[in-house]
Every structure is written in C-alpha cells, then in structure tokens.
Fold this protein.
Amino acid sequence: MKNLSKITLSVLIIASAALTSCNNDDDDPKPPVKASIYERLGGTKMVADPDNSGQMIEQGRLSFRKVVNSTIGLIVADIQSNASGNLQAHFAPVLAETGNTQATSIARLSDNLTDFFSFNTGGTNAVNTYSGLNMVAAHDPAKNPRMGTKSSSADYTKFVGYVGAAANSNGVASNTELYTDIVAVLESLRTPIVQK
Ligand code: HEM
C-alpha cells in the first residue's frame, strides 16, 4: 500500500512537471487561427457571377448562394411531395404568391438567406449586410405573415438536413471540418427559430 502511494505520487509529480513545462514553453508553435467559414468557402476573391453575365461576385458569397438555392430547391421538392410532415404549411404564404410576385419573393428569400449566412460567418463586404428580421421575429407568424406556421424541432432538423445535403451537392462533403463548422452555426439558431 505504501509503495503504491509512492508510485501514485511520483506519477503525479511527473505528470505535473510535464504540464508545467508545456505551459511555460513559449517557443511551442501556436495553433494557427482558423479561417472563417466565409474565407474557407472562397472569401473575398472576385469571380465572374455565373447567373448575372458581366458581373463579378465574391467567391464566398457565390458559394453560399449556391447552397441556399439548392436548399430552396429541396424545400420546394419536399412541399410538392405531399408527404406527411412536409414543410408546406410553413411556406404556404410565400408559395401562395403567384406569377412575378412568387418569383420575386423566392428571390428575396434567397438573397436574404445568402446575406444572413455570409454576414454571420465572416463576410465583411457591404454587399453581404443582412437587413431582414431577426431570427425570432422572422419565424414567428405573428411578426412575419410570410411564415405560415411556427416551426417544431423536427421541422428544424429536416431543414438543417436540407442545408447539409445542399452543401454536399456543392462540394462540401459531410466528413470535412468545414461541414461540421457550418452545421454548428445552424444548430446555434435552433433555440430562437423553433417556437413550438
Ligand atoms: C438554420 C435554420 C434557418 C435559418 C438560418 C433561417 C433563416 C431565415 C432568414 C434569414 C429568413 C428571412 C427573413 C426576412 O426576410 O426578414 C427566413 C425566413 C423564413 N424562414 Fe427561415 N431559417 C431557418 C430555418 C427555418 C425553418 C426550420 C423553417 C420552417 C420549417 C423556416 C421557414 C421560414 C419561412 C417560411 C420564412 C419566411 C419567408 C420570407 O419571408 O420570404 N426557416 N429564414
């Protein structure tokens, strides 16, 4: 028993010496500061905008716009599937708008979502400034009549799944750190957005 305590004590001393020397070693290379999600998606590098001929766009914003538009495509497919638990009731006011109005409202949603993601993940250019409602108000039908019904946690999980699938189809694989970081940003919004 006595010997065992001695061994335990010496293990502790060696361990704490190792920790102290680690803490005091200023020559250790510091881990590099991680680039923002926006930078990792291409950042401020200007590229030709494939959807607006003759115009340039930041690569980071273009990456987000592609993911957002793929997500909207998946949501529309979900609604058209008529499956139980689909997102139809939530988006009904937006989809009920017809003709040009609907095209405009979906384009506005795409623009606002692109601004929102770019602005909140490191996009600093004024073009990325988000000027829509905050996440609580945007998802409360009493404050935003374009939100059909409140979202449940299950709706939210489905929505995040669509953003993830959209990221996958735009070159961000599920097993990457970038994907994990994007999902973490989305998860941080579950509480304000889920309101029932
Ligand atoms: C990570 C999750 C989400 C984010 C970041 C997000 C973000 C946004 C943003 C930025 C807007 C625009 C607000 C404005 O124009 O003022 C919006 C609107 C909306 N969101 Fe979400 N949202 C999320 C999840 C959801 C979920 C789970 C649902 C429903 C199931 C939903 C349904 C809607 C609807 C119906 C609108 C209104 C469309 C419009 O005004 O054009 N969202 N959301």
In short: The longest strand covers residues 46-48.
